[in-house]
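tool=predict chain=A
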Amino acid sequence: MAAAELEYESVLCVKPDVNVYRIPPRTSNRGYRASDWKLDHPDWTGRLRVTSKGKTAYIKLEDKVSGELFAQAPIDQYPGIAVETVTDSSRYFVIRIQDGTGRSAFIGIGFTDRGDAFDFNVSLQDHFKWVKQETEISRESQEADTRPKLDLGFKEGQTIKLNIGNMTTKKGGVAKPRVSGSGGLSLLPPPPGGKIAVPPIPPPSSTAIANQVTPPPVLKSSNASSADILLDLDAPVSASKAPASATADLWGDFSTASSAVPNQAPQQSNWVQF
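tool=predict ok
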């Protein structure tokens, strides 16, 4: 069983001086006139309080000293039949009071200060303005509940694809750039410094040293001269097969320019002897 909603009574306005008048019945539809009342001789004088409980406002006439309730006027709308203004003044109003048995009567109230009458009027206007807003909000809420709701959720198996620039990836990964090389191989990008590292040259292995052909050393005879070594470099003929006289006189004599040809007369020498 749901708990009953509690309503609290709040005070909207309090005025310490108010005059109450007995008014004659209204004889026409043109409204009430305060000049028809005995304004100099009010029938009762006391305190006025305006309270609210839920959407209903109450005008309460109370004794100034004891606070005893003299009369009460429940108001369900304003302006309305429960509270009316007179046609010839802004300080006087006609209210409908009710007792506990359901009987009602119309009486006149008036304020000596015009500002008190203004505050009394504004307090009722503000309350029923709030009631109107609450009614509209409640009606819109009920209409929203009756309208079909828009389903924006994903159905089973439904996916969504997002393209953010050129960073379309799968499984939340980041796409890495690939550089295609010759033969369909992928090469790594260069280092950040912009320099390509050169691989170190491996040291020579023992196998390469073993496979290298070393030329045999040139054997020198004990009786061979330096001229024989030079002769071996210039002529293909072996030094051992050359005659001994030719080997000995290979360079000739620098002191003479005579011809070595036999049976030929000697000629004048053009060489200077040192």
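Strands lie at 9-22, 44-53, 56-62, 69-75, 83-85, 92-98, 104-110, 179-180, 186-187. The two ends are 151 Å apart (CA to CA).
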